[in-house]
Amino acid sequence: MKLQTLLENLLEEDIDEVAVSVAQAKAENLAVYFDNPDGWGRTIILYKPQEVLAGLNSMVRLRSAKENKKPISINSIRNVITKINGIVGMISFSINGKSKIGDIISSCANKGYGPLMYDLALSNAYPGFLAPDNHSVSEEAQRVWSYYFNKRPDVEKQFQAEACSDLSCGHSAAKNVEGDINIETLQDKKFEFDEQIRAGNLRQDEIAKLNKKIALLDTKINELARKHPLAYMYRITKPRSSVSLANAHRQLLVSVNKTGTEEDKFESALLKAGNDFFSRTII
């Protein structure tokens, strides 16, 4: 077994062992907030509602009588959520309403919650497909996509020919070696041939030879890309139901109102706290 394959298998086994399910998240009393769930740009935040509420109540108790006459600011709520490490995971993605195809924009999660965040995103995007952003995929996120590619028969995958060029942009996935050949090397050679043709100094027979070489390179690049999880878009065939987690969020909003915090302010604070979390933890 090649070293690369062995490493990928070990990483996927680790994901299998620690991946958290919706049922486990419910048992841990977590909640989920869907921002703009039917729009183009969507964000999902998984968080700890009980700890967040306790933090808000504590903040309200510590405020002076004069302060309590003023509305609680979004940043004050955000600081409470961030201070108590209330965010467990966040994922943002885009989805085209017509084509039903989208891209993961950013993601972050505590250990074990990465696959759950992607499952929630895929379920929200259903029946659409989501694809990696091949220009900025962390090694941890690559593991999740590899997990979907190799270990999740309930997730449909569809090859994207246009992803072949993206995989050459200094991407670690392009450096996975098959013998001494990798996508990045082949793309560099193809670029070199294209530059020679564009220079305009070649005879027609020389151009024809180079075009044949370019066609062969394209075939090999396509062949190698088909082995890479990042060259595919994915659709979950059995969407995960997150109703219980979403209900936990709605129940929290009722309690949050009692602290004098408006619902829209609280949800804006959740998004800001999610961004704080993203700056520290990326999947």
Structural features, described:
The protein is of the alpha+beta class. The chain has a domain at 3-158 and 239-280. The chain has helices at 3-18, 22-27, 49-62, 65-68, 74-83, 114-125, 139-151, 163-166, 183-198, 204-225, 243-258, 263-280; strands at residues 31-35, 41-47, 87-95, 101-109, 129-131, 155-159, 232-236. A 5-stranded mixed beta sheet has the order 1-2-3-4-5, with helices on both faces. It has a two-stranded antiparallel ribbon with strand order 6-7. The longest helix is centred in the C-terminal third of the chain and has 22 residues, at 204-225. The model is unreliable at 1-12 and 168-180 (pLDDT under 50).
Task: Give me the secondary-structure topology.
Elements: H1 3-18, H2 22-27, E1 31-35, E2 41-47, H3 49-62, H4 65-68, H5 74-83, E3 87-95, E4 101-109, H6 114-125, E5 129-131, H7 139-151, E6 155-159, H8 163-166, H9 183-198, H10 204-225, E7 232-236, H11 243-258, H12 263-280
Parallel strand pairs: 4-5
Antiparallel strand pairs: 1-2, 2-3, 3-4, 6-7
Summarize the structure.
By secondary structure, the chain is of the alpha+beta class. It has helices at 3-18, 22-27, 49-62, 65-68, 74-83, 114-125, 139-151, 163-166, 183-198, 204-225, 243-258, 263-280; strands spanning 31-35, 41-47, 87-95, 101-109, 129-131, 155-159, 232-236.
Secondary-structure element series: HHEEHHHEEHEHEHHHEHH
Distance between the ends: 27 Å
Query: What structural class do you assign from the helix and strand content?
Result: alpha+beta
The number of E-state strands comes to: 7
Helix amount, in percent? 40-55%
Low-confidence stretches: 1-12, 168-180
Question: Numbering strands along the chain, what is their spatial order in the largest sheet?
Answer: 1-2-3-4-5
